[in-house]
Amino acid sequence: MIVDMLQFRFAAETDTGLVRDNNEDSAFAGPYLLAVADGVGGNAAGEVASATTTYVVSAMSLAHPGTHPLSLLQSSIEEARGQVHAGVEADPARHGMATTLTAILTDGQRFGLAHVGDSRAYLLRDGGLVPLTHDHTWVQALLDTGRISAEEAVEFPQRHVVLQAIDGESVPTPDLVWLDLRPGDRLLLCSDGLTDLVPDGDILPLIAVDSRRLAANGLIRAALDAGGRDNVTCVVADVVDAEPVVGTGMLIGAARDMTNVVDPAHVRPVRSA
Hints:
This protein is α+β, with helices and mostly antiparallel strands. About 30% of the residues lie in helices and about 25% in strands. It has seven helices and 13 strands. The chain has helices at about 45-65, 70-90, 140-145, 150-155, 190-195, 200-205, 210-225, and strands at about 5-15, 25-30, 35-40, 100, 100-105, 110-115, 120-125, 130, 165, 175-180, 185-190, 230-240, 250-255. The strands form three sheets. Strands 10-6-5-3-2-13 form a six-stranded antiparallel sheet, with helices on one face. It has a five-stranded antiparallel sheet with strand order 1-12-11-7-8. Strands 4-9 form a two-stranded antiparallel ribbon. A hairpin with a 4-residue loop joins β5 (about 100-105) and β6 (about 110-115). It starts with a strand and ends in a 20-residue tail after the last strand.
């Protein structure tokens, strides 16, 4: 007898934006893994860091289906950090490259979230939008301690300073948490190219449309209409209970170009949808 498994049905979109010359965002969307990585702006080879991290996380999830989600995410981040470090060693011009990562992985029953940096995850349930992540940024730290107000945070000069990232020097301490998800839930994973320009209150009606593809496209368009100052990436996924499927998926953004991945042969190759 085939036992149904919790999994994702998804749509993913990315755009370079109206100001940047290249896309340093990467993402993966598949039946059992969702991930967004944003190469830290202003640093060398952000697209290499994001693509390598996304590739490693997705490849390891495909290679080890059914593995304890949080353990696999932790191992994947450690492996990705090692690959980013190796990339800097191989090419000193990449010194300073780094990336965020927000990923949700399921083994068919449980859902684990890993979060480093300021890409975000949201849950849409019963008409309400709930943040699932907490930014690892200097401005968020000031907000948490009451040193600045929410109004001041919007214009704070160092609001994009990230306190944690996957890079070639530091060892991040990711947030690793279990998520209580159920069929009918909708998830949004996105880079800050969306959330810096589109308030949560405006995200809600856009993500609530029936079509995942239209929701993702609408969110991208909202960021572009608000100025498109950064790369913007959105993964929209619904939680479903269905028969098991092969855990393939799709790479988007910088991760689609394998020349951005430090060592694709180091981990099991990703199978494309």
